[in-house]
Design a protein that fits this description.
By secondary structure, the chain is mainly alpha-helical. Helix content is 27%, strand content 4%. Strands 1-2 form a two-stranded parallel sheet. Strand 1, helix 2 and strand 2 form a beta-alpha-beta unit. It is globular, with a radius of gyration of 15 Å. The two termini are 24 Å apart.
């Protein structure tokens, strides 16, 4: 049903391709140097938009709210995963 919409429904509300590439490049460099941060280093992970994840704004997990809130720091769960080298998309 979602694919019948014009345009088709996207899986992501927003993403920053340059930020994703930068995270991947840094992770690849750690692996090349033999110093991955953890078993999760380089693993891609999406975060629902109700959880603060820099550099993305949040909508509180809804599309009907129509209000964006700028995010200045990661939520604790995101910060911990980022410390492990997770690549957020």
């Amino acid at each position: 049903e979602s694919q019948n919409q014009n345009p088709p429904m996207s899986l992501f509300i927003s993403f920053d391709a340059n930020d994703i590439r930068q995270q991947a490049d840094v992770s690849s460099k750690r692996f090349a140097e033999g110093t991955p941060l953890s078993i999760l280093d380089g693993v891609f992970m999406a975060v629902k938009d109700e959880i603060d994840c820099v550099p993305y704004t949040t909508r509180g997990g809804t599309t009907w709210m129509h209000k964006f809130r700028d995010v200045t720091e990661d939520a604790i769960c995101v910060a911990r995963l980022r410390e492990c080298g997770v690549i957020f998309i």
